[in-house]
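My current task is to audit a protein record that another person submitted. Please read both lines and tell me whether the tokens look consistent with the sequence. Do not assume that whoever made the record got everything right. I have pasted the whole thing underneath without changing anything:

===
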Amino acid sequence: MAVDHALAACLCPGEAVFRVYRWSRPTVSFGRNEPARDRYDPAAGRSAGIEFVRRPTGGRAVLHDRELTYAAILPLKGRGGLRATYELINRGLVQALGSLGVPAVMVEVGGSPAGLDSGPCFNQPAPGEVTVGGRKLVGSAQARLEGAILQHGSLLIGPGQERLLGLGSPSAGSRAGGKAMEPGKYERVQAPISLEEVLGQAPSWYDLAEAVISGLRGLAGGDWHRGELTEPERVKSLEFAERYASAEWTWRR
């Protein structure tokens, strides 16, 4: 999270960055302003070998395990704003998935997005998101940071998001948006779908990562090259690391 924030903070005019990665251990990421303190139980996470972190982007909880995470960082100006950037990136993902034989589509734009009290991210597809057969395959969230747009996304390689339901807080009458909710229970639940279910087997990490990079790069245009963090990006990521490693930040809401 610190690296992605640093990439946004150090973005130069006329540039963009796509980063693709996976997590070293199962981790739940909360959206920047998502209520989590009375909804999820850190002790239950420790017992299940699951850690917690809070993203700089919005949206709702995602379990990062058996999935591909991407971060797209683009200039705030010149792409038509958050909605246009969201649709651009998701069109690139649909093209990438199509190259792997996945019949992915974007949810028709025009509906209302789910609120932060609607439970985990993959419970319900939102307008513009990537689905297969009406079930959510990619969950994405955005933020304006340091004059740039950062979009995070999680592409499910295998099942497992239901494990979030076992991490509910033991506190009776957990609340979200003023409405009492039974711990670990959410309304309008719809099971997501994974690449393993669609294709019959999980694609190789290399093939999937290359497809995603090609799809995003092709829609964004321009000349692209691969590289490591620059020295300013590395220094800035170290500055942000203390925040994103802090329990105070993770459980601030």
Observations:
- The radius of gyration is 18 Å.
- DSSP finds seven helices and eleven strands in the chain.
- Residues 117 and 178 are 9 Å apart (CA to CA).
